[in-house]
Automatic annotation (TrEMBL):
Record protein name field: Putative restriction endonuclease domain-containing protein
Domain called Putative restriction endonuclease: residue spans: 14-181
PANTHER family the record matches: GLR1098 PROTEIN, RESTRICTION ENDONUCLEASE DOMAIN-CONTAINING PROTEIN-RELATED
Organism: Thiothrix lacustris
Superkingdom as given in the UniProt entry: Bacteria
Length: 191
């Protein structure tokens, strides 16, 4: 099956947990999506951004995790086995340690970052945007390494993202959750 193709069957976390560990999949509302291996540029961007965030979080209560790291997004008080949405965003910042367990994270991270790849762009910009909004992810960044822009969604008081803010990578981008942190894109000159 090709990258980001989907299986036409309904799956839950109980099914997902039995799949081979050397294959990367995501479940979105019961639909399984295969995930291609990331490109070198994708990995570089993810690593560099993750490193800047990690350096900032050293004295904070929040932690950063990178893919593959399972984030289960249950509907209400669903048992883990019944959860039909498990994603592996490129980067996730989680400030509530009670959401962390040996399986990964149960519930919405505070901040999710996706680095666009041709095979996942539509899913990241559409399906995941609505999914993250519905589950209460406070800040959602979509990074386009080729066109060199970042799209920032911030959850409003009404529980919706509204229109995103768009930033070029010619200057650092401020992080809403951590006002003293700005992501410096200088590394993109070499990416």
């Amino acid at each position: 099956m090709g990258a980001a193709e989907q299986l036409q069957e309904y799956f839950t976390y109980a099914d997902y947990a039995k799949w081979p560990e050397d294959e990367r999949w995501e479940l979105i509302e019961g639909v399984a999506y295969a995930m291609a291996a990331p490109s070198r540029q994708h990995q570089r961007v993810s690593f560099e951004v993750g490193f800047q965030i990690r350096s900032h979080l050293t004295d904070k209560r929040c932690s950063i995790y990178s893919a593959p790291f399972d984030i289960r997004l249950p509907n209400h008080n669903e048992a883990d086995d019944d959860v039909n949405t498990t994603v592996q965003p490129d980067l996730a910042v989680i400030c509530d340690k009670n959401k962390l367990d040996d399986k990964g994270c149960r519930g919405a991270p505070d901040w999710i970052i996706e680095v666009l790849s041709p095979s996942t762009a539509l899913k990241d910009m559409d399906k995941k945007r609505w999914l993250y909004e519905r589950h209460g992810v406070q800040e959602y960044w979509i990074i386009h390494p080729t066109d060199r822009w970042v799209m920032v969604y911030t959850l409003k008081d009404d529980g919706q993202y509204g229109l995103p803010l768009m930033f070029g990578m010619d200057e650092p981008t401020a992080v809403g959750l951590f006002p003293e942190l700005c992501i410096d894109w200088a590394f993109m000159q070499e990416a």
